Structures are given as C-alpha cells and as structure tokens.
Amino acid sequence: MQTPLAATSGVDWSEVHAVRLLGVALAALILIWAIRRMFGGKR
C-alpha cells in the first residue's frame, strides 16, 4: 500500500531523501544534546 505522497505523480525523490536525511541529522543532534545534558553535568 502506497502513501498519498508516493502515489502523487512527479515526486522529487532526491528532495524527499534530503528532507528525511535532515530529519535524521536533527534527531541525532537532539539526542546527543540530551545525553550531554544528562551526563555532562552543569557548566
């Protein structure tokens, strides 16, 4: 079963991958920041 986004014609897949990659990078940054806040102490 396809999502409506995938079903639409003329989807720029490179753009989709770029947005997904940006989201993953942002999630990793937030995760690293949270871990540093938990274990890094207060400066």
Structural summary, described in words:
72% of the residues lie in helices and 0% in strands. It has helices spanning 4-7, 13-39. The longest helix is centred in the middle third of the chain and has 27 residues, at 13-39. The chain is rod-shaped, with a radius of gyration of 17 Å. Keywords: Membrane, Transmembrane, Transmembrane helix. The chain crosses the membrane at residues 18-35.
Keywords:
mainly alpha, 2 helices, rod-shaped, 43 residues
Largest sheet: none
Poorly predicted parts = none
Rg, rounded, reads 17 Å
How large is the share of residues in beta strands?
under 5%
Structural class comes to mainly alpha
Number of strands: 0
Task: Summarize the helix and strand pattern as letters.
Answer: HH
What is the percent of helical residues? over 70%
The 3D shape can be described as rod-shaped
The chain-level mean pLDDT equals 82
* Helical run tally: 2
Distance between the termini: 50 Å
Produce a short descriptive summary.
This protein has 43 residues and is mostly helical. The protein contains 2 helices and no strands.
Topology of this protein?
Layout: H1 4-7, H2 13-39
